[in-house]
Amino acid sequence: MNRRQFIGTLAGTAAVTGLTLAGCNRQETPRDSGASAKGEIPTDGMETRTSKQGDKVSLLGYGCMRWPSRRGRFQQNENEIDQEQVNRLVDYALEHGVNFFDTSPVYCKGFSEEATGIALSRHPRDSYFLSTKLSNFDSSLWSREKSIAMYHESFRRLQTDHIDYYLLHSIGGGKDAMDTFRKRYIDNGVLDFLLEERKAGRIRHLGFSYHGDVRIFDWCLEHHDEYQWDMVLIQLSYVDWHYAKEMNPRNTNAEYLYGELAKRGIQAMVMEPLLGGQLAKLPTHATRLLKEREPERSVASWAFRFAGTQPMVMTILSGMTYMEHLQDNLRTFHNFKPLNDEELAVLERIAAEYANFKLVPCTACQYCMPCPYGIDIPGNFMHYNSCVNDGLVAPNEQAPDYRRLRHAYLRSLDQKLERERQADHCIGCGICLDRCPQRIDIPKELRHIDLYVESLRENLD
User: Fold this and answer.
1) How far apart are CA 326 and CA 320, in angstroms?
2) Over 80: is that where the pLDDT of 73 sits?
3) What's this model's pTM, rounded to 2 decimal places?
C-alpha cells in the first residue's frame, strides 16, 4: 500500500457514523468534571453482592493496576508509586464502603502488591477482601518451584496470612494457548497445589482471569466439577456485550462469557467496564442521550450500571488513580440503580455506533511493556485513537482542513511522546504479541500509524 492509498483508507475511519470517542492516556487522567455528578457522598449504602462463602463484597472493587505515581510515569524496576496518595485513596474507599481490592505481582512494574499491602495493613484484616493472581506469564516462571515462590511472595508483599480471592492470571493468551495453559498450571502440578491451599484455607476463593482463546475458557468450564471455580474475571462493558468480536475477531463477546458462567452458578468479576477509559467521556450527542435521562450522573456511571445490572456479577473493578475517579464511582454504587429496558436500549445504540470505528482496541493495560526498543506502545495507540475520535485525522491531502489537521496531529504527537518512543522505531520483532490480552497485532498497528505520520511529515510546509 502506498501512502496515498493509506491516507484514503482513513477517510472511512474518520467519518463512519459521526460518533466520536475520547481516547485514554496510558495513566488515567481526571474525568471531565462537567460530566460528573455532584453532591455529598454518603458513607453507607454501598451495593454489595454475596460470594460463594458468604462474603458481603462491595459491587465497586478497587483495581490496583493504576496507582498514582510521583512523577507521572513508571520507570522499569523503579518504584515510583506515591504511597501517601495510595494510603489516602484506600482510607477513603474503606470509609465509603469499598472493601474489595484486586492486584497482581506484575501491576505497576511489580510494585502494586507492596503498595496495596502497606495501605491496607493499617486497617483491620477483616475489614477488606484481597484479590491477587499467579502472574507467571514468562516461560522462565513456569516451574513448580518458581510459580509457588511467586505465590508465597504475594503473601509477604500483601502482609497477610490468607488471600480471599486468588486467580490464575490471564489464561488463553498468546500462541498455542492450550499448551501454554497446561505448562503454566497443569503439568507442573501448580493448580493441584492451589486446590490444596484452598482446602487449607490460605486461599478462600479460587478462579481465573480470562483473555484470548475461548477454547481455554470453555475447557476450564467443562472441568468445573473437578476444579470448582469460585469466580472468573472477564472483560465486560456495554460495548463488549455484543461487539467485542466485531471489533476484534479474536475476542469473545461478553454476553457469551457471562452466560456460560451463569449457567454453572459461577460469579463474574468484571474488568475494563470503561474499555480502558474510553466510555468515561462520550461525544456530544451520545452524552446528551444519557444526560436527558440522568442529568446528575456521570457518563462513566452508565457503564458501571450496565455491568452491575447483571445479577451474577460479584464486583466491578475500577482502576481509580485520582480521588475524583473514586468519588464519582462511589456516587454510582451507593444506592445502586440497575438499568431498565429503555436505558439498556440506549446503551445498545451507542455500542453499535462505537463498533463501527476501526480504532486500535487497546485498553492501555501495559502488559506489552516495556518494549526493548523503547517504544511507548499504548501511548502511540491512545494518541492515534484520540485524534481519530477528535476529528484530527485528515482524510486526504485535498481535504479543506488538511494543513490545520496535519499540524495539529503532529504537534500533539510530539507533545505526548518523545520522538524515540514513537511508532517509527518498531522493527517488528513481535516480542509484544504474546503479552497482549486483547491479542492486537501490535507491529501491524504501529506500522499503520507510522505510515500515516510519515506522510504528514513529508508534506510539512
Assistant:
1) 6
2) no
3) 0.78
